[in-house]
Structure formats: C-alpha cells, structure tokens
Amino acid sequence: MELRVEQHLGQENRLIRIGLPVDAGGGTPASSPGQPIPLAGSSPSWRTLVDTVRRAQAGIRPLLLVGEAGVGKASLAAGEALNESRVGTALGVIDAQALVTLGPARWFEQAGALVRSGKRVIVTRIDALESRQLGGLRSLVRAADFPHRIALTIAAGQSEAAAFIGFMLDAHAVKVPALRTRGADLAELWASFALRVGAAPGATLSTSALTALRHHTWPGNLPELRAAAIHAVSQKHQACVQRADLPSYLPGRPQQGLMERAEQDAIRRALLVAEGNRSRAAELLGISRATLYRKIRASAQIEG
Q1: Quick one: which of 3, 124, 223, 248 has the most CB atoms within 10 Å?
Q2: Mean pLDDT to the nearest integer, 166-195
Q3: Domains of the chain
Q4: 3-class SS at 276?
Q5: pLDDT tens profile 120-157
Q6: Backbone angles phi, psi at 88, to 5 degrees
C-alpha cells in the first residue's frame, strides 16, 4: 500500500492530510474500513487489541490509549483514519505538551477547531495537562458532535491518572503493550522497519539475531527497534541478519577476552600458512584436527 502524507506544521501541532491510492476500477481506496489496520503484528493478542481499538472508534465515546512512550499509541489511533481515508481526508494531531509553548488560549483554540471540524483528532500526551486544563479538555470533548472521532494518549506510568482521566472524559480506555511483551510479533515488526530503512526485500533474521531481539527489554520500544534495524542495514552484510549485525548492547553476544582473541588470531594465521588445509593448520598449532574444528565452530558462533 502506497501512502502519501502531506504535513502542514504549526508549532508542535500538525494537520496530516492522507491520500490513499485508488484502484483501477475507479474511486474506491486501496484500503477500506473492513481491512486490517496497517500496523505490523499478527499475533492473536495484537489482533485482538487492534479489533478492540476499531470497535471503540466505531462507537460513541472517545478513545483513551494508555501505554509507555513509543509503543504506537498514536499509530493505533490513526489506523482507523487511514482505513477510512479517501484522497483529501485529514487527520488532526495535537500535542498536549505544546500548551506550554503555545499558551492555553491558543492551544485550546487550535484543539477546538480540530474537534469541530468533524475529522478524526488525536490529542497526544494528555498527562502533561494540569487539572484545570483537563477540565477544559473535558468540556471540549463533551461538546463535540462526534466524540468517537477523538482519541487521546497517556503514559502508562500514570495508571491512576489514566483511570481518572478515562472516567472524567467518559472514554473507552485501552492499554497498548510494551514491545518487550510482543515477542511473537518481533520478526514481523523487524521486517517492516528493515524494509522502510532500506533492507533488501526478503531480508531475514538468523536464529541468534531473533533470540537477541526477544531477550532485550526494549526500554525505547518501537523507536529503539527501528534504530536497531537501521544499524543492521548499515552493516551491509548478507540478506540474513546475523547477531553480529545488531547493536552490541543487545543480549546474546559473547564478549571475547584477550586469550580468546589471541587464539583466534593464531588459528587464522595457521590457516593462511596452510593455505586453508585444516589438517596441516592443526599440525602447525600442535592440536588435533577435531580440536581445531571445535574452536573454529566456537569462533563462528561468537562472531555470528
């Protein structure tokens, strides 16, 4: 699916105009409301979450997405807008933290204009608002003609605040899981990011690389995974990504000591002198051929 996005930026707030290509039959968008939200992940738990968000946005109440920074809350909120979009349809995104720089009057003026437009609106990071400002947001949401077209996001660390705000706004609250709990989706998420940052089609993860991804805690969530994909693609190794292609801070990469490195250097030099003949190299090193093979295999596991 080709997606064209034009951004008209104003301070920290933005209006995103989404254009989806039409099919050859004329007129209908390539992605319709009945199709899955275009977010990577096909595990049962993730599809259930996506369906929950879709049903909430088809209801009558605003949607409140709760989760850590970088888990994809705004993307989930925007997903249904992408599905229903036709060329020219707009999605408004306004950041609550922008209230500090814009000032309350201007921020609420912009937020009110977006809500009254009837377009889908996402208000991000509402945990940045003070009690008085949350009261103003509640008035704005309650006065909206289409409250179900409003989505809000809040940090997971503010669970009590999220429960209070959900009650205050009469919102349908949905928790978005952290990346560290989405091991079943990691390979698919990786492939999605890798393609976007320039990996060749069909690029895959080795077993050791996927294990390293699944053992990492991902404090930075999806942006951190994207950074890891950029790092791996920049290594320009073979199509199958090895553990050595991933950032060194990820788990599963054995650290070599001075003795191990010296031993590997000796093996490489012996193989060069023996012109690749492993039996001869073993003789030069004074070890059995079986021992040489074992050390070569161990070295390959450390490097790959």
Answers
A1: 124
A2: 92
A3: 4-177 (3.40.50.300), 180-245 (1.10.8.60), 258-303 (1.10.10)
A4: coil
A5: 899 999 988 998 999 999 999 999 999 999 999 998 76
A6: 100, -15
